Amino acid sequence: MEPVSPLRVRGTARELTGLAANPPGEAAIGVGRLALRLGFDEKSGETRLTSSVEGSEPVVLLRWPGDRGGFRYLSSAGEWVEMWPPDMKSYEGVPSAILLETGLEDAPVIVARPPAAGSPPLPSQASVKEP
User: Which of 13, 32, 47, 87 could form a disulfide with 53 if both were Cys (CB 3.0 to 4.6 A apart)?
Assistant: First the structure.
């Protein structure tokens, strides 16, 4: 298998990595490799979304009760997938949208990039709730 470029966006249900300018929770450092991670803290009983840039300590961005939640990625075909890229052989670049599901009723957070030519429209709230 061909190695994946560090410039590419990669993601699983519990972690998302890619390049970002002025990542959340960080001083204005310019472009850096950002990692967003979901982790469960047994002591507090909370899931935490953390942000970190290479060499920095993670910063907690969100937290919610229970061990639940995950990322999903919108492909150029308009399908939600749980891993990005969905197929290493036909790499699609940046997802059309990224959904963070907290597992809480009516509490998804969508992080989206500006639409590019040929990108599907961003999903409606009703379509996001469908698995």
Answer: 32
**CA quadruple 124, 127, 129, 131: dihedral positive or negative?**
negative
In a domain, 2, yes or no: no
Q: Is residue 121 part of a domain?
A: yes
Which tens digits make up the pLDDT trace of 44-98?
A: 999 999 988 877 889 998 899 999 999 999 888 888 899 998 876 666 678 888 8
Supply the range of the domain harboring residue 63.
10-128
- Residues 86-107 have pLDDT tens digits of 876 666 678 888 889 888 877 7
Q: For residue 11, give the nearest of 130, 109, 99 by alpha carbon.
A: 99
DSSP string over 72-111: EEE-TTS-EESSBSS-GGG--SS-SEEEEE-SSTT--EEE
What is the spatial distance between Cα 72 and Cα 68, in angstroms, rounded to a whole number? 13
Does some domain include residue 3? no
Residue for token digits 């840039």?
53
Q: How many independent structural domains does the chain possess?
A: 1
